[in-house]
Amino acid sequence: MGTPAIAGWFRAEPEPALLGSRCTTCSTIAFPKAKSFCGNPACDGTEFEELALSNRGTVWSYTDAQYQPPPPYIPASDPYVPFALAAVELPEGLTVLGQLAAGYGVRDVRVGSPVELVVEPVYTDEEGERTIWRWKPVTEGASG
Ligand SMILES: [Zn+2]
Question: How far is ligand 1, taken at its centre, from the CA of residue 124, in Å?
Answer without folding.
Answer: 38
